[in-house]
Amino acid sequence: MPFAVYVLGLAVFAQGTSEFMLSGLVSGIAADLDVSLSAAGLLTSAFAIGMVVGAPLMALAGRAWPRRRALLLFLAVFVAVHVVGALTPSYEVLLVTRFVGALANAGFWAVALTTAIAMVPDQLKGRATAVVVGGVTIACVVGVPAGAVLGERWGWRSAFWAVAIVSLPAFLAVLRSIPGGRGTDPGAAPVPVRDELRALTGPGPRPVLLTMALVQGATFCAFSYLEPLLTRETGLGAGWVPVSLALFGAGSFAGVTVAGRFADARPVAVVATGMSALTVGWAALALTAGRPVLALALIPLLGMLAFGTGTALITRVLGLASGAPTLAGAFSTTAFNLGAAVGPWAGGLALDAGFGYRAPVWVSALLMVLALLVAATTAKGRRPRAGERRPSEAVDLSAHGRL
User: Fold this and answer.
1) CB 398 within 8 A of CB 380
2) What is the tens place of the pLDDT at every residue in 221-233?
3) What gap in Å lies between CA 191 and CA 195, rounded to an integer?
4) 3-state SS string over 283-302?
5) Which member of 92, 323, 387, 396 has the greatest number of CB atoms within 10 A?
6) pTM of the model
């Protein structure tokens, strides 16, 4: 595996820490800037919206640039807005920096995914994707708890400074390690936007993107409300919450690693198995949430299945949409973050309706049922499209048995 792929994973780690760290900083931000907790919570929403809309827009804006230049620009903007965020006394300015930082993060994600797979042969594309996505899981395990500790000891601004500082080595590493061309052929002209959109909206990638959004929606629906589930339904103390989050993150990292090794050889089998297991797993957590031992045992397993399946789905999109070298990564990023935005909203509706603290987990199970239905109804009878990367990635679900 080229060293440059690990460099991209390092940069994603720094940016992933920023994306999730506000969960432990909201109270400090609200008190310091004299705003309500709900207003401070909008900082997370602003980042999510920026990720959803930013991936295709930033990828299009930088599609004519060499990939190294695009990555460096996105990283530079990301660092700059965190410095501004750490210094500003204004809530409004901080809100804008979160949105702009998300745009830069989304652009980096989109270019990083396509850059990583362009640097490796076909049989290593799943592992390259796993390395990049693995940066997010390491952020969940290490970066987010570290940001919470910094915020508790030295204030929320210290966490913003830490993200900016950690991003600097990634900037230098990208500068030295990433090839300067647009792709495998540095002199190649960009593929027309119309052709890229046609490749992405065909019967191959389109249902996979929808499936990815549903799977991530299920993941973040339950993950966002894990704290009230554990403390008010399972009966665990507040001290178990960071432990549980770390368990979920550790499982996620294991899932990404395993999926990276097997998604290239049998991508559809990995996705089908993971989705089926997730459906059963979320339902099992909802049923056994009152039993601490069972709940704690299921959390890392569900993290492994969720992020392993997500990695395999991203690999499939990048393979099926090889005719969209710029926008395939962008659309994958958008689908991923669309699920991350819609899932918690759906879980919140279930909570507000009075269905109890297990309700978001049941919503996750329902979203997985919908994902299975989408996969099953679109896979039957599907034939490989012209221009897909390789036959092994174009196999439909029926070739591995019905879900």
Assistant:
1) yes
2) 888 788 788 888 9
3) 7
4) HHHHHHCCCHHHHHHHHHHH
5) 323
6) 0.74
